[in-house]
Specification:
3 domains; Uridine Diphospho-n-acetylenolpyruvylglucosamine Reductase, domain 2; Uridine Diphospho-n-acetylenolpyruvylglucosamine Reductase, domain 3; 4-stranded antiparallel sheet; binds flavin-adenine dinucleotide; alpha+beta; 285 residues; Enolase-like, domain 1
Length: 285
C-alpha cells in the first residue's frame, strides 16, 4: 500500500522541530525510527498532513550520566540502548528488556522514545519505565515540562503528550546496589510483542525483600503497576513460597484484553506465573 501524501520536514535542531510541529498543526506527526508509524501510513490507518522527522537531531540520541539519574535521549535506538555501558551498569532492566524487542533490523531503526510515545499496550518498554519511576521530558513552543511515567500512559495507544509536544528524553533513576532486575516476557514466537510481560526490580537486604517495583505489560490498555504484589513482598523472606504467594495478586486491578493470542483469563493466569518467575530471577541476581 502507498501512504497518502504528506509534507516532509527534517529539522536539524529541537527548537526548529517544535516550531515545525506547532506550525503544521494538529494533523502533523513526529517520525522517529518509523518502525510503527510507517506501517500505519502504508495501511492508511494514519494519514497526517506533515511528518516531522527527528533523524537529524543528534543531541536527541545522547545517553548521559546525570549523577543519580541517567538521561536517555528519545532518538537513542534500541540497538544503541542495549550496548550502552551506562544503561547496562545502572539500569540493566532496560538493556535486558530491549534485547527482547523485535529483531535486529527493527532494533537498528526503532527508538527508545518512539516505543514510549507510541504507547502500545503490548510494547515492552512502557512497563519498564513505569516500574523504574522514569520521568518523561517534553518540549513544545510553549516550553518544557516533565511527566512522571505513572501519568504518561493514559489509554490504548494514547500518551499524555499534547499534539504540539515532542518527547526529548527520559530520565531514569539509578537504583544503586542491592537491586536485582528482570523482565519476563511470554510471546508467541521469538522476536514478537508480549502476550504478557512483567518488569521487576527487587532490593534484598540479607534474606529479606526490602523494596519491590513491578509493572505489567498487556494487562490493560496501558501498563499497570502491580501494587498489591509490591505491598505483599515488603519485609518478607526472599523465598520461592513468598514469590509464588505474592504473584497471586498480579491480576488484581488489571483489565487484561482477550484477543486472538489469548483470553483475558489466560492473560490473568500468565501474569501470576510470569510474576513469580520474574521475582525469582530478579531476587537471585
Ligand atoms: C516487526 C516488528 C516487531 C516489533 N516487536 C516489538 C516487540 O517485541 N516489543 C516492542 O516493545 N516493540 C516492538 N516493535 C515496535 C518497535 O519497538 C518500534 O520501534 C516502536 O514501537 C516505535 O519506535 P519508532 O522509533 O520506530 O517510532 P515511530 O514508528 O517513528 O513512531 C511511533 C509513534 O510515536 C510517535 N513518536 C515517536 N517519537 C516521538 C517523539 N520523540 N516525540 C513524540 N512522538 C513521537 C510518532 O509520531 C508515532 O505516532 C516491533 C516493530 C516491528 C515492526
Amino acid at each position: 500500500m502507498i501512504p497518502a501524501t504528506f509534507d516532509y520536514l527534517r529539522p536539524a535542531t529541537i527548537d526548529a522541530a517544535v516550531s515545525a510541529l506547532s506550525d503544521a498543526g494538529e494533523d502533523a506527526k513526529i517520525l522517529a525510527g518509523g518502525q510503527s508509524l510507517m506501517p500505519l501510513l502504508r495501511l492508511r490507518l494514519a494519514y497526517p498532513d506533515a511528518l516531522i522527522d527527528l533523524d537529524r537531531i543528534e543531541s536527541l540520541r545522547e545517553i548521559r550520566d546525570e549523577g543519580d539519574t541517567l538521561l536517555i535521549g528519545a532518538m537513542a535506538t534500541h540497538h544503541q540502548v542495549i550496548r550502552d555501558p551506562l544503561v547496562r551498569e545502572h539500569v540493566p532492566l532496560i538493556a535486558q528488556t530491549t534485547e527482547t524487542v523485535a529483531d535486529p533490523a527493527v532494533r537498528h531503526r526503532g527508538t527508545f522514545g518512539g516505543s514510549l510515545a507510541h504507547a502500545d499496550p503490548a510494547g515492552d518498554l512502557p512497563a519498564v519505565a513505569l516500574a523504574l519511576d522514569a520521568v518523561f521530558l517534553v518540549r513544545s513552543v510553549r516550553g518544557e515540562r516533565e511527566i512522571p511515567a505513572a501519568d504518561f500512559f493514559v489509554d490504548w495507544m494514547t500518551s499524555a503528550l499534547e499534539a504540539d509536544e515532542i518527547l526529548t528524553g527520559v530520565r531514569v533513576p539509578k537504583l544503586g546496589t542491592g537491586w536485582g532486575m528482570h523482565y519476563e516476557k511470554f510471546h508467541r514466537t521469538a522476536q514478537a510483542w508480549a502476550i504478557v510481560g512483567v518488569a521487576c526490580a527487587v532490593r534484598r537486604e540479607r534474606d529479606a525483600i526490602e523494596d519491590a517495583r513491578i509493572a505489567l505489560t498487556n494487562m490493560g490498555p496501558a501498563p499497570v503497576r502491580a501494587t498489591e504484589v509490591e505491598g505483599s513482598l515488603q519485609g518478607r523472606p526472599a523465598s520461592e513460597d513468598t514469590f509464588r504467594s505474592a504473584a497471586e495478586h498480579a491480576p488484581s486491578g488489571t483489565e487484561p484484553p482477550g484477543d486472538l493470542h489469548g483470553s483475558s483469563e489466560y492473560r490473568a493466569h500468565l501474569a501470576t506465573v510470569l510474576t513469580a518467575r520474574a521475582l525469582t530471577a530478579a531476587a537471585t541476581l
